[in-house]
Amino acid sequence: MKIKIAIVDDNTFLISAVKEKLSFFEDFSVKFSAMNGSDLLTQLEHNHNLDLILMDIEMPVLNGIEATQIVKQKYPHIKIIMLTVFDNDENIFNAIKAGADGYLLKEINAQELHNGILETLNGGAAMNPSIALKTLKLLRNPLSIESQKDKEDIKLTNRETEVLEHLSKGLNYIKIAENLILSTGTVRKHIENIYKKLQVHSKLEAVQKAKRNNLI
Amino acid sequence: MKIKIAIVDDNTFLISAVKEKLSFFEDFSVKFSAMNGSDLLTQLEHNHNLDLILMDIEMPVLNGIEATQIVKQKYPHIKIIMLTVFDNDENIFNAIKAGADGYLLKEINAQELHNGILETLNGGAAMNPSIALKTLKLLRNPLSIESQKDKEDIKLTNRETEVLEHLSKGLNYIKIAENLILSTGTVRKHIENIYKKLQVHSKLEAVQKAKRNNLI
DNA sequence: AATCATATACGGCAAATGCCGTATATCTTA
DNA sequence: TAAGATATACGGCATTTGCCGTATATGATT
């Protein structure tokens, strides 16, 4: 028995791309596709004999998060994997709350998509490592789960993030420099830049703002 | 430059098994192993030039969760992947809270362990799908996060608590003194006493410890 | 090839911080 | 009532921190 899959995306080109990826595997059968959440619900009315849905988030009429919530409510047996280009905290958290069983990015290759689907049907959750890390951070910082809306889009470099993590442990310049094998001067410069980006003026404020914005 | 790894497990047979798995890959170098968390900390004192630690949980003297918390505190640059046979919610959640960057099961094969390590060093989180699912569930049910353990019994005076609350907002001595209508000297003395009770040495540490102990 | 972002490093200075005293008034509690 | 805890206040000092420069090397982007 083949695994029955549906694809929901408002971009027909991307639907084709996903179908293409799935076509490599004989154990999959794409039953149908939908242009948005509402369209999906209509089709499910007729036929909900389905194993799994690959769901985009940004869609007109009824978005992927809302659709997921409704589908999970009505047809809990259908697994849902979010398949989207966006990996911002808000989407991830809302998708999980809505009941998604996995969260993958569209850039995924065919083999990994295949694995993710099988793992999900096998009682696991599909997510790539960067998404996994975000869920861990969300778990660590209940604060970051709160008001997601007014979050600014702050971009730190890798090095800055590393330094910030050390800061958050209460380490001073010297210890941070030791751990990262840097001069204290460089560490202090990084911190200076971090302050500017976060618009703060002390270690404490930096750490708090970073946590609220899920940077660490 | 090879990736520098340490293995922590109280079962020497299992250490050998992991080494065996890692030996297939030339980009890895197992720097040392430790029998428990305490042993690990001692060895890190001498050499913390390390990229990643594979950490068991159930160990005598100092278990993997506690060890993770301490290592992450002192050497935040070192990634830690829990590698254990148990995947109960309690362990997973505590490991994440302690700062683990991944959670894998010992039954993992060599190739997947290799991938997980690389993904983790690359800024992702390593976890197998069943663990991933559990983290999703933990995220969905904030209540399940409640169960707390033995917190120390730290007693602050009302005034100290007030000062601590101000501290936690990122205010400096002068602002706190203004708000509480005190001299800065007094505020500083209160903070001194707070530090002694909490056994910390900076504003940041004080706020973090206070939060962990529900003091503010 | 040129520009931009990033990572690295050094120096200086004023302010803030952490830690050590001491001291007094008040309030609890044994 | 006497002892202990608490809140208040002041002075000093070494270190850390926050902020301002400048500068070079590298890698990415255009």
From TrEMBL, chains A, B:
Pfam families: GerE, Response_reg. InterPro entries: CheY-like_superfamily, NreC/VraR/RcsB-like_REC, Sig_transdc_resp-reg_C-effctor, Sig_transdc_resp-reg_receiver, Tscrpt_reg_LuxR_C, WalR-like. Coiled coil: none annotated. SUPFAM superfamilies: C-terminal effector domain of the bipartite response regulators (SSF46894), CheY-like (SSF52172). GO terms for biological process: phosphorelay signal transduction system; regulation of DNA-templated transcription. One of its GO terms (molecular function) is DNA binding. This is LuxR family two component transcriptional regulator. It comes from Ichthyenterobacterium magnum.
